[in-house]
Design brief:
By secondary structure, the chain is α+β, with helices and mostly antiparallel strands. The protein has 5 helices and 3 strands, in the order ααβααββα. The longest helix has 16 residues, at about 75-90. About 20% of the residues are buried.
Length: about 90
């Protein structure tokens, strides 16, 4: 993403939550809160707090796998992430 694109994108969207959704949307492998935090350069606790809000809104699911919780997008979350990704590309 170019610098000008990033500036205008953050005008319309809070950067970290948008990056979380698009990161999950574009993920090739399993995603966990800790890996997502590293990917978007954010603290683990902040990522978990935002993900919990997204779960309440029906955007993400937590799937327990042993001691880890795998993150997946719901159909609604995937649809929104797709639109955010499209807007990011157009900006």
């Amino acid at each position: 993403m170019l610098v000008n694109q990033k500036k205008i994108f953050s005008v319309f969207f809070r950067e970290k939550p948008a990056l979380m959704l698009t990161g999950l949307f574009n993920a090739k492998n399993d995603v966990y809160a800790s890996s997502l935090a590293k990917q978007i350069d954010c603290t683990y606790s902040h990522v978990v707090k935002i993900l919990q809000e997204m779960e309440k809104s029906g955007l993400v699911n937590f799937e327990k796998q042993g001691r880890l919780k795998l993150l997946t997008l719901t159909r609604k979350g995937s649809d929104i992430a797709s639109h955010i990704e499209g807007i990011k590309i157009k900006l």
